[in-house]
Amino acid sequence: MALSGLDIYKLLPKTNCKECGFPTCLAFAMQIAAKKVELSKCPYVSEEAKQALESASRPPIKLVTIGTGEAKLEIGNETVMFRHEQTFYHPAGIAVLVEDTEDASRIDERINKINKLHFERVGQQIGVNLIALRCSSGKKETFTELVKKIRLRSVTESLNLILMSEDAEIIKAAASLCKDRKPLLYAATKDNLDAMVAIAKENSLPLAIKAESLDELSELAQKAVSAGVEDLILDSGNKDISGKISDLTQIRRLALKKTYRPFGYPTIALSSAGETYQEITEAASYIAKYAGIVVIKGVEPWEVLPLLTLRQNIYTDPQKPLQVEPKIYEIGQVTDKSPVLVTTNFSLTYYTVEAEVEGSRVPCYIISSYAEGLSVLTAWAAEKFTAETITKSLNECGIKDKVSHKEIIIPGYVAVLSGKLEEESGWKVRVGPKEASGLPSFLKSLNK
Q1: How far is residue 353's CA from residue 339's CA, in Å, rounded to a whole number?
Q2: Whose CA, among 159, 290, 382, 398, lies 20 to 30 Å from 150?
Q3: Which three-class secondary structure state does DSSP give residue 373?
Q4: In a domain, 341, yes or no
Q5: pLDDT tens by residue, 27-62
Q6: What is the domain extent for residue 360?
Q7: Claim to verify: residue 203 and residue 184 sit in the same structural domain
Q8: C-beta neighbour count of 139 within 10 angstroms
Q9: The domain that contains 205 carries what CATH number?
């Protein structure tokens, strides 16, 4: 039975030392009860208390790390089913598949494309996390040659590895070549469990468990843990998209709602769709429901970017919009005669405007007015982007010292503000286009 916060508090040292990061032992106990923090953060807890609280303090879904260094991938340790309940903290890893049956030039081409699957979006760097190397040939020598090739490519050091084969001897040989990079071993099944567990345990590597039913998956996971391997990733086998989503949801629900320990691990899902558009849809579904790693075949930017964007949107705090610093941004070689645009400090809005201004090749100042991270229309409706707030930004940001004119361009959607803004600020107001895509032609027309 789960312990309450008060039950846990009774077993803590009650020193209120704050070394755990919380103001009191009671506050710490409440976080343990909510599965949001581990008992190990308390430096003074007794061994007796540790034994009594082991179950209560363990996260419902274990945090598993693949790789090393700054590029390592951490997945799991989520505590809620739905994003609106609490922020999701550990974004799903996206892996791109490379098979050893492809010819050398094709493999090199795929690797080069995979290494370029990194982008900047709304001020954040997003990209794929892993290369999944699959032994489709069934030959140890062929697969180890592929692993060596990846190992020697310094450009792939930022990507973590998945070694994919159900032949334990092949996995053992491959793991010996790259165990320092802490790859994920995929996969242990009912037929090879003991051998795969031994390899994972010997090399201290995470292990994927694969089964065709949830009952079998539960049984194999328990056996792996009993044998001493606890960094597990769960795969419920080859299913169509509806069956896979059902399994992923059941695993998550049983881990969180029922504290069912055999399912208290992250999951992995491999796309099986033949057509590209189907794979994107399938992979997107797995990211949303609730895969810790998704393996895809596509390597083109237009295939991968939608998945990266979806993941970025899911794994942000829904109660805290992404924001840029409210200030003046200089785009291009600005002068005292350059146009001045104003928008809100919502990241997506700002970076959309910035991209269009850069595309116009017209040097401009962009004032990011503080609006609590809301978009233009939302901020205007909430009275966060008004004549008064824009005037305050104009007065405080220092734009008056940078330009010799007093003309400002506002978004077309808030044209209604123009009259009052002129009265409040003393600046001439020009109404720009409603959509950012109209900025290039609008800005170029100013010079005619």
Answers
A1: 13
A2: 290
A3: coil
A4: yes
A5: 988 888 776 777 878 889 888 788 777 666 677 899
A6: 328-446
A7: yes
A8: 14
A9: 3.20.20.20
